[in-house]
Amino acid sequence: MTDNTDTIVALATPNGVGAIAVIRLSGPDAINIANSVFKGKDLSKQASHTIHFGSIADGDLILDEVLVSLFVGPRSYTRENVVEISCHASGYIIESIIKLFIKKGARSAKPGEFTLRAFLNGQLDLSQAEAVADLIASNSKASQQVALQQLRGGFSTQLQALREQLVNFASLIELELDFAEEDVEFANRDQLKQLIHEITKIVGRLINSFELGNAIKNGVNTVIAGRPNAGKSTLLNALLNEERAIVSHIPGTTRDTIEEVLNIQGINFRLIDTAGIREATDAIEQIGVQRTMEKISQSALLVYVFDAAEITIEELNNDIASLQKPGVTMLVVANKADLLNKSDSQEAGMSERSFADLFANAYSFGERGLFTSPSTDFRTFGFPDIIFISAKEKHHIDELKHKIYSSAVKDQLSGDETLVTNIRHLEALQKTEEALVRVLGGIDGSITSDFLSMDIKQALHYLGEITGVVTTDDLLENIFSKFCIGK
Ligand code: GDP
């Protein structure tokens, strides 16, 4: 995995027909190999960062007219000699040129091998190398920004600073070990405690940032649930501003889940419309109800929609109670608010108190007051905040979008802070935190320098794993095998 004495070659652009394809060579012989088949200038005599027109020929047979970009190491992505050939993107031409390079001494690159070399040669640290993959996979403004920040080393710089401080103390404690007989303390315990406290705080903040970082990178699973006919499909359409899901009058017709992506200010919310949560009467619907409950447990956000003109207080309370799951934020949405002021729900004989009644008693439905959400008053009725909308009339959809966004982002996104997006980094940070807690406990319990030193080294080890100061072949294999060939 870590042999980088040879020259590697791969297609750097996607497979398939296009205008141009880029074939990349990296390694000590990259320029010589390209030069041996290039008809044009002598590439070995050209300066770095220059582009040359010519053709690639296998003996007398011209394969293509190309542009050759030269990057002389160490001024390149991999810090090795790198040559990029821009040729015409025919599968036949690409294959012929790569085969020719292999005949001349290059070998096919393994997945992620260019980036691996960039890491091994000190161009990028490990978290930056991972950011390359994230950047390529980014599909929203926010995910692109976070990956770019990590690629530029924001995260690495922060970790590096933490490590340096810890290394200082570790070495002082090591010194104490050397003078063990003399019972000296080079490392001031109070200072050490303060430092560990500070580091633990930063590590804790990074750990906490994962929830948002992950939301940005992978999107937020969002379930829209509610009784049949509450207006879930209509709401989904209103949110997406398109006629996607099938809207119908027959209760229970949205039997299967539909997944759509709603992008709010750069964050992808994966909306899942589900079958109604009413007690199911037939088998197919039963599956739908079950699936709703499953989807809710797999989500971060639940948008519970009810028909404000129809639902009774008891039903509403039951729904809210039964849909609440730990770790899932619930937004309660009163739909069909446009019907509230025309409500005929106070008809005689209605045995249970309806939501519309309660709402009618508590508020007047002037045009202006209709869509306000008097949250504190609702709390006095035992309800959470309720957002009033009309999915059909598209009223208050933007307000709802804002609530959806802020449920995921809260107040954390200021633009330049470091967000952890990678589960590997999260785990290493958690282990660092555990080790730091042991260090603190050790100082308080006055344990001996050698144990203290061990725990500090553990913390250093885990911090180092993130940027790759500490690596194993397995770890590298694991990370880079997930890259595509050519990266
Ligand atoms: P679902 O079963 O929860 O997906 O409900 P649908 O989206 O299929 O809507 C059921 C019915 O309610 C349809 O006839 C919709 O046109 C109607 N509806 C949905 N939202 C509103 C609304 O805000 N106001 C009114 N008046 N009708 C609505």
TrEMBL record:
GO terms for cellular component: cytosol. Its main location: cytoplasm. GO terms for molecular function: GTP binding; GTPase activity; identical protein binding; metal ion binding. K(+) binds at N229, S248, I250, T253. Residues 219-409 form the TrmE-type G domain. Gene3D superfamilies: P-loop containing nucleotide triphosphate hydrolases, Probable tRNA modification gtpase trme, domain 1, tRNA modification GTPase MnmE domain 2. It comes from the Bacteria. Signal peptide: none annotated. CDD domains: trmE (cd04164), TrmE_N (cd14858). Binds 1 potassium ion per subunit. It is an enzyme of class 3 (hydrolase). It holds the Pfam family MMR_HSR1. Keywords: Cytoplasm, GTP-binding, Hydrolase, Magnesium, Metal-binding, Nucleotide-binding, Potassium, tRNA processing. The keyword Transmembrane helix does not apply. GO terms for biological process: tRNA methylation; tRNA wobble uridine modification. Its EC number is 3.6.-.-. Its cofactor is K(+). GTP binds at residues 229-234, 248-254, 273-276, 335-338. HAMAP family: GTPase_MnmE. Exhibits a very high intrinsic GTPase hydrolysis rate. Involved in the addition of a carboxymethylaminomethyl (cmnm) group at the wobble position (U34) of certain tRNAs, forming tRNA-cmnm(5)s(2)U34. Belongs to the TRAFAC class TrmE-Era-EngA-EngB-Septin-like GTPase superfamily. TrmE GTPase family. This is tRNA modification GTPase MnmE. It comes from Mucilaginibacter gossypii. The gene is mnmE.
